[in-house]
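Closing statement on the adenosine-5'-triphosphate sub-project.
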Amino acid sequence: MALLEVEKVTKRFGGLVALNDVSFSVAQGEILGIIGPNGAGKTTLFSAISGFAPPSSGDVRFDGTSIVGVLPDRLVRRGLIRSFQIVQTFADMTTLDVVTTAALTRRPIREAIDYAAHVLGRVGLAGKEHLTPLTLSLQDKKLLELAKCLATDPRCILLDEVMAGLTMAETDKPIAVVRELNRQGVTIVMVEHVMPVIMQLATRMVVINFGEKIAEGSPADIVKDQHVIDAYFGEHLDA
Ligand SMILES: Nc1ncnc2c1ncn2[C@@H]1O[C@H](COP(=O)(O)OP(=O)(O)OP(=O)(O)O)[C@@H](O)[C@H]1O
Ligand SMILES: [Mg+2]
């Protein structure tokens, strides 16, 4: 059975149809890549799945149960978490505070602090526990975003452009973290513009354009699909 099922999801913002009748499913243990041009509806899709902006119509099921209308904090307890494309943090918290807050999802405070320190080490932020996230490099901010997700012990993570803005060399660490998580059984859905990254990580891809799913398949098939080339690669190659 699929772990996550998105069925005929439509999301309207007033007159704008940001998602139109989008359906796909994600099997336990998969890394599903989602690509599409700017404004295609990718972040809206994550918001619709994760309880931040429920669909106008359609259904989302997690582990066989509809989760439409379930609030994000409840979903985190069930094992479904998203990252945010735009990293925002509180000025008066350290990286350890931030990750501890996430770890409190399943642990009492003492354990949460220890676990947060462990998770920071795991993503490569050891030694930066007492820095404020505002002073971190973009790469470290992205790793912190991953650490926040990890600290909740998720079954499924929705990653929204965690590699965007990084150099190819800087993507090595987050790629390794994603691989390692997946090896441990965490299901991953990732929106990513960096094609070499998504091509090497994704087991399957979904392509969204103007709010509609226009293709789905293996990374090798997707890069050959003419609709995808027209909608996405064409635009990027010309840029
Ligand atoms: N809260 C909102 N209210 C009104 N319109 C919105 C809202 N959120 C998104 N939109 C619109 O929905 C469309 C899809 O936006 P979305 O952010 O999901 O795109 P995206 O695929 O994530 O783009 P990007 O690659 O730039 O991150 C856009 O036209 C956007 O302006
Ligand atoms: Mg987006």
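The chain has a mean pLDDT of 93. With this model delivered, the sub-project is considered complete and its resources will be redirected to Aim 3.
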